[in-house]
Every structure is written in structure tokens, then in C-alpha cells.
Amino acid sequence: MAAPKLPRLTTPMVRETKDAPLRPATWDEALDRAAAGLGAARAAIAAGSPHAFGMFSCSKATNEVNYLGQKFARMVMESNNIDSCNRT
């Protein structure tokens, strides 16, 4: 028996706090929150917390996508914490 298909999200969902329920948000609000989270991780790395950000890439993605992922982690986030399942 096939698993039932779940509906796709059509609007971003955000939380006010860690334990709060998800609520619909505008794309601008969701992207601003994502940018703020990445900025906070970058600031934590700059303050001496090297494990504030990590990235995992997929071996099924193209080489170009994995290359862009590692460039983002290393150049933008200034983190070497990137891994993939390519080596398994």
C-alpha cells in the first residue's frame, strides 16, 4: 500500500519562540528570519564559536551544487564544517 500524499506548503511557516506553534508568514518575513539566523551563526563563528554552523551536502546533487555549497560554507559563513555522504 502506498503512503498517502501529504499536502505541500504554499506559504512559509515561522515560530515566535522555540516551543511556539508554527504560523503562516510572508516570504519577506521568512527570508528576513533566515538571513538573521545565518548572520547570528556567522557572528558566533567570528566570536570564537567554530561549531555555530555546519552544512551537509548530498551525493545525489550535481558537482556544481555541491561546489556552491562548500563555497558558501567556507567563504560566506567562514566555516569548514561541511560534510557529505560522498565518502560512504
Overview of this protein structure:
With about 90 residues, the protein is of the alpha+beta class. It has one domain. The protein has two helices and four strands; from the N terminus they run ββαβαβ. It has helices at about 25-45, 65-75; strands at about 15, 25, 55, 80-85. A two-stranded antiparallel sheet has the order 1-2. Strands 3-4 form a two-stranded parallel sheet. The two termini are about 30 Å apart. The mean pLDDT is about 90.
In short:
This protein is α+β, with helices and mostly antiparallel strands and 88 residues long. The chain has helices at residues 27-46, 63-76, and strands at residues 13-14, 23-24, 55-57, 82-84.
List keywords for this structure.
39% helix, extended, 4 strands, two-stranded parallel ribbon, alpha+beta
Give the secondary structure arrangement, pairings included:
Layout: E1 13-14, E2 23-24, H1 27-46, E3 55-57, H2 63-76, E4 82-84
Parallel strand pairs: 3-4
Antiparallel strand pairs: 1-2
Radius of gyration: 17 Å
Largest sheet: 2 strands, antiparallel
How do the helices and strands follow one another from N- to C-terminus? Answer: EEHEHE
Strand content: 5-15%
Q: Which strand order do you get reading across the main beta sheet?
A: 1-2
Number of strands: 4
How many domains? The number is: 1
Instruction: Please give the alpha-carbon distance between the first and last residues.
Output: 31 Å
Question: Runs with pLDDT <50, length 5+?
Answer: none
